[in-house]
Amino acid sequence: MSQLYNLPPELLSRIVSYTATPPPPDPKRRHPDRYAGQHVPDGSTYAGLSYSNIALATSPAPDVASLRSLRLVSKTFEQLKLIFTTQCGSESMDNPGPEDIDFRVIVLSTFYAGLADAEKLFHLSIKSLQNITPKALMGKESTAEEIAFMNNFEVVMRRITQLGLCITVEDWDAAPENTLRQPEVHDFFGSELQEYWLGPVAAQLEYLRIYGNEEAYWGFYPAGNLPHFPALRTLILGDYSFTSEKQVQWILSHADTLEELILDDAMIGVAVSIAETYVDIPSRTIVYEKDHSSEPPGYQPKWRGRTLKSQVWKDPTRWHNLFSRFAEGLPKLRHFTINHSHWDSKAYEHADALCSAVRIERYGAFSEGVWDDFASYDAEDPDWTDWREDGNEIIKFQVEKPGCDEEDWQALNEFLAELKRRR
What we know:
- By secondary structure, the chain is an alpha/beta fold.
- The chain has a domain at 20-53 and 161-271 and 316-383 and 405-422.
- It has helices at 2-5, 9-12, 64-68, 70-73, 101-114, 144-157, 183-198, 245-252, 319-329, 347-350, 405-422; strands at 16-17, 79-83, 123-130, 162-168, 207-211, 234-238, 241-242, 260-264, 267-274, 279-280, 285-286, 288-291, 298-301, 311-314, 335-339, 363-367, 370-373, 384-390, 393-399.
- The chain has an eight-stranded mixed beta sheet with strand order 1-2-3-4-5-6-8-15. Strands 7, 9, 14, 16 and 17 form a five-stranded mixed beta sheet that branches. Strands 10-11 form a two-stranded antiparallel sheet.
- β4, α7 and β5 form a beta-alpha-beta unit.
- α9 packs parallel to α11.
- Residues 17-38 are annotated as: Disordered.
């Protein structure tokens, strides 16, 4: 614990942020608009749920004393947010940033220790949680401090009915294709997220908000394996990539309870070109396998090799197809939003107030670790092209920009009109 108190104040000032009372709801929120500026007639503000945003106590910022005494004052807390910096790195990095893995583990351990007596706490949000689960939470604890961390984590999470996680990953600027190839990314989204963070609280969660970040579209690569939530009323997915029927069915499996669905910066993968890992083309999913060379065993894409020809497919699914299916398959749904937030506008915090829009970024194509949408292509050449060397051949893989703006727009209007009738 003494290590934490010796950290620079400028780092500690961003560790914990809380407020006793949430801000009043904005009566003007949730008025969907089209990308071109045309409004969707969504009617009055949806007020079917009582979930509130959390304000950040930025003045004065929490300091060492407030962190040390968190346990003394946490009994009054109902909602709490923990914020890390978005920059992170693995243990092997020369410069993992101001908040390395050891720092983050100490902060998480101290944070949960401070909340052990917060019996009123029901809403917990962690922003920029690194995609590496502390070993203590994976049952690998060996010291008294690690055992206490695990126990405090379990005590706190048993109280939570509303959970938000914004996941940050190590960013490879020089080689963006390597960002999603990191083993830790697949371990976390494909296995650890479900087993250690969501699975233990799945039965009680009513509100779930999960974001990747701008470098990590999750869902396809890495796979986003999530449990079923039998009490879920609100689901918010950020930076999520749809490629398979399995993902749609998972959302529809919450038909008995789901009242609110928000998709922020979600895209449909209209085409995939991938050579180095195995894919199941009929189901449009990556083939994964347990990696027993690590402890605990990892969860990794099955390696195929660099010399084989690419596996490619084009997906005919479009958003107007999904809007219709959500309308029919989610009978209790009362509110839906789809849009593409910009990261400089604090997308994770503002998801509850997001307006619907038909944006060009709603479709994308994937090639060996990199998602690319159609926003950067001009009207004269709107298609996406991938040139790939397959053995001795140079193959051109071209994908036409989906030409269904009006169909998507009309289907969204009809979907929102149906939800308005249900209120």
